[in-house]
Specification:
Elements (H helix, E strand, L loop, with lengths): L1 H6 L5 H4 L3 E8 L2 H16 L3 E8 L1 H14 L6 E5 L2 H7 L20 H6 L1 E2 L2 E2 L2 E6 L1 E6 H7 L9 H11 L20 H11 L16 H17 L9 H9 L5 E5 L3 H5 L10 E5 L13 E6 L7 H11 L2 H11 L10 H5 L1 H6 L3 H10 L23 H16 L5 H19 L4
Parallel strand pairs: 1-2, 1-3
Antiparallel strand pairs: 3-10, 4-5, 6-10, 7-8, 7-9
Helix pairs in contact: 8-10, 9-10, 18-19
């Protein structure tokens, strides 16, 4: 296939006649920003390909990509997708299978659970750029000063106790930072794992919503208490990127979020607290099942792309072991995209630069999307439900949770609104009788 020749850096006469321009739609996370900086290397190896980026906040990116791919508009040649969209869109026939990869790509080197989440019918439909679970970040210096000890596997109750003692807004430090920005991949990623940790689930085995259950109420109350009493102001504007910035600036005593941030907050070039960051597993409460998520940012090529060979070449380059090695050599091993390849965690240079690597590897390995909750469920997915309806459900419930944080509604009334909305959508879809 032509794209394999491109991926190998070989010229193709038909492509060399005129420069091919491809558009990559991606999210504005630090790892993607680094990818843009590194793209000059790809273009040097592929002088017949020019790469343009459209970089957007997560919620806006999802909306634009979903609209484009569902309509077949072909605005983007490479899209940034997750392990939620990939299997669904593959079944819809919207994505090209990533087959024919050269042996040098090392498909078998991909972490099994990550590879499985990007597959449908045994075929890969996206290649992982980075993968993550969730974990607890904390300031060792502040804990030591307060005489506190963070356990390796804390509970949310313990986290609340720590936040209460460490919350010192007059000194510029908040007890805890958590995502509050509404969105199924923003506040609901974090809150969804809290629901699991308190023993809750989205649906029972008959697809009946469970949002008014005691477990949901306990999780929502804990979430509200943590952020209203011990969080920063304007929390409903804080997603992953904003929370990461707050923690790196030293404004959060604790932060529960994606493991992918470990390198960023540990790097003195990007973090004021690099020397004092501690790491623990994501909090649990009544169960550890589903208390930490599994999420993959991946690159895929929509069937609507008019430059499929060049697009596939770019995806193969950006997700390769060679790309990871190049980042390690030029940016330092703390900057490499984590979570995707076994060889990354076996690399002695990475282990030395990233003392958290063992904990992250353990968290990713322990996350089980097939068994995400204490009680049985008819779905896969930990912080999400792998059905098409979830994008609308998660978006709406995320808005309701933000309303709860902003005191626009009570926990009880908000969860009833979410329950009613989810009921209607599941009835309309025919999934629930």
């Amino acid at each position: 296939m032509k794209w394999l020749l491109l991926a190998a850096g070989m010229s193709v006469a038909s492509a060399a006649a005129a420069q091919t321009e491809i558009t990559v739609a991606t999210v504005n996370n630090p790892d993607m920003v680094t990818m843009q900086k590194m793209t000059a290397q790809f273009e040097k190896a592929h002088p017949d390909v020019k790469v343009h980026f459209v970089t957007l906040p997560e919620n806006e990116l999802r909306q634009k990509i979903t609209t484009d791919i569902a309509s077949g508009a072909g605005q983007y040649d490479v899209i940034t997708v997750s392990n939620y969209e990939t299997p669904i869109w593959a079944k819809n026939g919207w994505l090209l299978p990533m087959d024919g990869l050269p042996a040098s790509y090392g498909v078998d080197d991909l972490v099994g659970s990550v590879r499985e989440g990007l597959s449908s019918g045994g075929k890969l439909y996206a290649l992982p750029f980075y993968a993550e679970s969730s974990m607890t970040y904390y300031r060792k210096d502040l804990f030591q000063k307060a005489g506190l000890t963070m356990p390796e596997n804390p509970t949310w109750t313990q986290v609340e106790g720590f936040a209460q003692k460490l919350h010192k807004p007059a000194e510029g430090t908040y007890g805890i930072c958590l995502r509050g920005l509404p969105g199924w991949g923003e506040n609901m990623a974090l809150f969804g794992t809290m629901v699991n940790a308190y023993g809750g689930r989205w649906f029972d085995l008959d697809w009946k919503p469970q949002l008014t259950s005691p477990a949901w109420n306990k999780a929502a109350t804990a979430y509200k208490t943590l952020l209203q009493k011990y969080g920063p102001p304007g929390v409903t504007s804080n997603g992953f990127t904003e929370s990461e910035t707050l923690f790196a600036r030293g404004q959060c005593a604790m932060w529960v979020d994606a493991t992918v941030a470990a390198g960023y907050v540990s790097d003195p070039k990007t973090s004021k607290v690099a020397a004092s960051v501690g790491f623990a597993q994501a909090p649990h409460e009544t169960t550890t099942r589903g208390a930490s998520w599994l999420y993959t940012w991946a690159l895929a090529v929509p069937k609507s792309s008019e430059h499929q060979d060049a697009a596939k070449a770019f995806v193969g380059w950006a997700t390769s072991k060679g790309y990871i090695d190049a980042i390690g050599a030029s940016q330092g091993w703390l900057a490499v995209p984590p979570g995707t390849r076994k060889s990354t965690y076996a690399n002695a240079q990475y282990q030395k630069a990233a003392p958290f690597s063992g904990l992250v590897e353990k968290a990713i390995a322990a996350a089980d999307p097939a068994h995400p909750t204490a009680e049985p469920v008819p779905y896969t997915g930990i912080q999400m439900v792998s059905i098409p309806e979830f994008q609308a459900i998660g978006t709406r419930v995320g808005q309701i949770m933000a309303g709860i944080l902003a005191n626009q509604t009570s926990v009880e009334d908000g969860l009833k609104q979410g329950q009613d909305f989810t009921n209607r959508l599941m009835m309309q879809s025919g999934r629930m009788k």
